[in-house]
């Protein structure tokens, strides 16, 4: 069984920073992409950032220049450094992974961690 365990969410003031972590564990033979999506109340889930095993990154338009994604392949862990946070960044952040478990590739999701940006 594959699990994604997120940490690092919380309450922060506008302009502040947070760092999210997500560690994958279980019967994983290989990982392609890892990353983060977010969902605010009343809105659809949207891309924050993803990173492939070779280090290629992709960012949502609203977070470019402010957020940075990185990955430790040896630890099956992905990080999201969030800087210059804005109230509109408030959302539940979900860790994402595309991995090979058994004989098929599939998408996995974490349970989500709340990020609240407020004064």
Q: What characterizes the major β-sheet?
A: 7 strands, mixed
Tertiary shape: elongated
Count the DSSP helices.
0
Measured as a percent range, the helix fraction is under 10%
Strand tally, please?
A: 11
Instruction: Supply the helix-strand structural class.
Output: mainly beta
Q: β content, as a range?
A: over 45%
The string of secondary-structure elements, in order, is: EEEEEEEEEEE
Query: What is the gyration radius calculated from CA atoms?
Result: 14 Å
Detail the poorly predicted runs. none
State the end-to-end distance. 40 Å
Please state the average pLDDT score: 95
Describe this structure in words.
0% of the residues lie in helices and 58% in strands. The chain is mostly beta strands and 119 residues long. Strands 2, 4, 5, 6, 9, 10 and 11 form a seven-stranded mixed sheet that branches. Strands 1-3-8-7 form a four-stranded antiparallel sheet, with no helix packed on it. The N and C termini lie far apart (40 Å).
């Amino acid at each position: 069984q594959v699990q994604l365990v997120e940490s690092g969410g919380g309450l922060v003031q506008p302009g502040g920073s947070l760092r999210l972590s997500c560690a994958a564990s279980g019967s994983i033979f290989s990982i392609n992409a890892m990353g983060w999506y977010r969902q605010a109340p009343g809105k659809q889930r949207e891309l924050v950032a993803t990173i492939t095993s070779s280090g290629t990154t992709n960012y949502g338009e609203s977070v470019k220049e402010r957020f940075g994604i990185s990955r430790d392949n040896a630890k099956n862990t992905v990080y999201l450094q969030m800087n210059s946070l804005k109230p509109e960044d408030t959302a539940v952040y979900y860790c994402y992974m595309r991995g090979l478990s058994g004989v098929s590739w599939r998408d996995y999701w974490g349970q989500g961690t709340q990020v609240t940006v407020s004064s």
